[in-house]
Amino acid sequence: VGVRGEASQTVRELLAKQESSLCQTVDHWKQERDLVLTRVSEMELAMHEVDAQLEKEKLQNQLDQIERGALEVALTDMRAELEGAEQKLLESAGEIQELKAELGKVVAASEQQLAGQQRVAELSIKHEQGKVDTLSKEMDRLKNRLEATEAERAMPSPSLHTLSMS
Questions:
Q1: Which CB contacts under 8 angstroms, 24+ apart, belong to 111-116?
Q2: What string of H, E and C letters represents the secondary structure of the chain?
Q3: pLDDT digits 0-9 by tens, 75-86
Q4: pTM of the model
Q5: CB 96 within 8 A of CB 44
Q6: Residue 128 class from Cβ within 10 Å (0-12 exposed, 13-18 middle, 19+ buried)?
Q7: 127/132 Cα distance (integer angstroms)
Q8: Relative to the CA of 63, which of 13, 36, 91, 101 has its CA 20 to 30 Å away?
């Protein structure tokens, strides 16, 4: 019973370690995902700030041009800059979509990895349980054999005296 208890305790300890490891892995991937989401948000905010600064600078340049009497040149430049800004905005939106797609891939990969690790842990648990069951059966067999041997020894054996009289 002591060996089986120790084996069961060892299996429980191994299972607890595996469960702890899986929990740490899940927490790590959640942190990674949160970091990526934070970076995407920060990049979007930074792009908006840059766009606002560019717009401010463009407006200041355009005002300067108008003040110099180059109204037509300023309007033409404004249209070109606006088209360029629109193009940059479209490109930025595309980059954001690419980042979101990358994030989706990372999340999907981490979910697949976690599922694989969970499956490995389940198989490991089944394997360890099989070992425990095998050891338990072997212990029961040895115990029965020991009891049978002790029972044979406890039986009185015929002495030489009894044998010579018969």
A1: 113/25, 113/29, 114/22, 114/25, 114/26, 114/29
A2: CHHHHHHHHHHHHHHHHHHHHHHHHHHHHHHHHHHHHHHHHHHHHHHHHHHHHHHHHHHHHHHHHHHCCCHHHHHHHHHHHHHHHHHHHHHHHHHHHHHHHHHHHHHHHHHHHHHHHHHHHHHHHHHHHHHHHHHHHHHHHHHHHHHHHHHHHHCCCCCHHHHHHC
A3: 788 888 889 888
A4: 0.34
A5: yes
A6: middle
A7: 9
A8: 91
